TrEMBL record:
Protein name as it appears in the record: Cold shock domain-containing protein
Source taxonomy: Bacteria, Pseudomonadati, Bacteroidota, Cytophagia, Cytophagales
Provenance organism: Reichenbachiella agarivorans
Tree of life domain: Bacteria
Basic and acidic residues composition-biased segments: 20-33
Limits of the CSD domain: 86-147
Matching Gene3D superfamilies: Nucleic acid-binding proteins
Disordered: annotated span: 1-65
Length: 148
């Protein structure tokens, strides 16, 4: 069998690999020698009564007794606000050729997008309208729009 030929490039790569391995070993030994002791006590971190990290154990006299039955697991049910379903506003802008526009609500002065598909009556700019809101792809949309 023929002996594999070692080229100059292969020799250089092997030298680099060996050098990296030696440097890594040397760094590992330096870290071991310079470490301040790896015992468990030096690695433990405690949390005080205010929630801050500290290296001293907590004072047992400040310990609070908590009843496990009082802990709620999960998201608490929120009370829903009674929101008026039908809102009133004025048509700020409406483009008949493109089929969309914006309605400004009277109470909050917020603008909502409206599309021709959400109209019950034909509308024009400046009309007073009543509408309902529905979540669209880019936010709230006015639907079931009627003239007042």
């Amino acid at each position: 069998m023929a002996k594999p030929q070692e080229t100059y490039n292969k020799k250089e790569k092997e030298k680099k690999r060996i050098k990296k391995r030696e440097e890594k070993q040397q760094k590992r030994e330096e870290r071991k020698n310079n470490s301040q002791g790896g015992d468990l006590e030096s690695m433990i971190t405690y949390i005080d009564e205010d929630g801050n990290f500290t290296d001293t154990p907590p004072d047992p006299t400040k310990k609070k007794k908590i009843n496990a039955k009082n802990i709620e697991i999960g998201v608490p049910k929120r009370e829903e606000e009674v929101v008026e379903a039908v809102k009133k506003g004025t048509v700020e802008f409406f483009n008949d050729s493109k089929g969309f526009g914006f309605i400004k609500e009277q109470l909050t002065q917020e603008k909502y997008f409206v599309h021709v598909n959400g109209l019950i009556d034909d509308i024009q700019e400046g009309n007073k309208v009543s509408f309902e809101l529905e979540r669209g792809m880019k936010g709230m949309n006015a639907v079931r729009v009627k003239k007042i």
